[in-house]
Request: fold
Amino acid sequence: MKFLPCEDSKPSSSHQTSEPIFPPSTEQKVIEHQAAVINHFIEHMKLQNARMGVLEAKMNDTRKRGPISKKRKSGTKRLVAYVKLLLNDGFVLDTTEACYRDQVLSLGIRAEKPVLMFLEELSISSRGSGAVLKHLRSLHRTGALNAKIERHDQLLQTPAIQDPDPGYTHNILEQIR
Reply:
């Protein structure tokens, strides 16, 4: 009696797939859904923790600037006074309006053009606030701004300039004789 080799009844594939014999029960479906929801929340918490870390780093930033020095504050006040001189048509600011900050920003943008044009007429190419202040101070000392100061003083007497700043800050620049 001769025995023949036994043939494998299973298909010869490189990998076997295990299909469940029974379809998943409703209990199994609920468990899989809960696992997916838990994984989603874990990913969400990881992202939230990362965002919170960035926010805390910004709030606890040790690179904060120190207090502004008196010299710098004084220079800024003088620069604002010089810029106000170069606004030929005046300006109106109202602190009671909700858009006061927007008014100040738009006034600054509007004032930039005449200042740069004035400096360009005098062949001054500086753009930085410190350099512009230095040039305007030297022009003031030579009397080159006398006409602008006189015009500004006249506008202060009319409703063309409505500045909410205290009155003692309006005329900090005097004519040089």
User: Anything to note?
Assistant: The radius of gyration is 38 Å. Residues 70-169 form one domain. The chain has five helices and two strands.
